[in-house]
Fold Heat-inducible transcription repressor HrcA.
Amino acid sequence: MQVKLTNRQQHILWATVRHYIATAEPVGSKALVEEYDLGVSSATIRNVMGFLEKGGLLYQPHTSAGRIPSDSGYRTYVDQLITPSENLSREVEAVLQKRLKWEDWSLEALLHGAAQILATLSGCISLITMPQTERATLRHLQMVQIEAGRVMLIVVTDAYETHSTLMDLPTASPDTQLEPEVIDRELQIVSNFLNSQLRGRSLLELATLDWTQLDREFQRYGDFLKHSVAELTRRTVTPSTTQIMIRGVAEVLRQPEFSQLQQVQTIIQLLEEEQDQLWRLIFEEPPSDEVGKPRVMIRIGSENPLEPIRTCTLISATYRRGSIPVGSVGVLGPTRLDYESAIAVVSAAADYLSEAFS
């Protein structure tokens, strides 16, 4: 549940997160009074910090210590209290254009160079995937009701590979409950319609289709189909030989958050041996406000589905050829990172690579 904050509470949360990012030390009211012009007393700051702790946005690592942000605190900070720097984005893009010569360099050299610059500017582990130039196309699609309210979406590609995903059927209104036989007929009609519209398209293209073209009589299936195919696309576009350019590991793992050897080992194993899982994660993106403009995906701590990085923040965006996403760029670091800069750097790198590949 999102905690509703007053302007004062927002300002003190912002200052607490900023101070902790800068120092890696639990934050007390005295530090905020000395470092930030909050215009209130130390006692008032302590009261507000207590409120923020009860709301789950801050916590004390041990009794009598100052407070540090929780994952929810960082999420509130990112979503409500900061604006990524457009000036920094332009500066990063200028650096990339100056140092990288995509007209003259090989593809691999370009991505290696971009990954190194990204790691240096962000202070994080940089991750850039190789572009997917060979994309499977859809040969046949079928939707099958397997039980009440559950449908299996099956796709066969031009290489005769079969992929499937289980989805919940959208719920009809109480006064229009349909018999299983009726649903079977509707699913067959919808499958035929989709085959006529989608056959021969690449799986990556399916993420950018205009779903308003669906027949009005199947309107209630619209969002369901969109999410079904998007989920299937996410699961099936991973290339057989995944390659991710990785830079900046040594520097990041010197951060105090990675002092435990076991934690470092699990992150290294993920980066070196389980890139297919990481590839699926950083290639996923939220809906874009503007066609062709990458939006940044931010996963903070426990929001990450992969266990080794649940104490980390992963920021990523796709880069495109035209409107089709072909690769991804991201940074991985501790949750205590400079979010304004990291978001700006990832966004600028995605813009630059999109321009290069288009």
About this structure: The chain has twelve helices and ten strands.
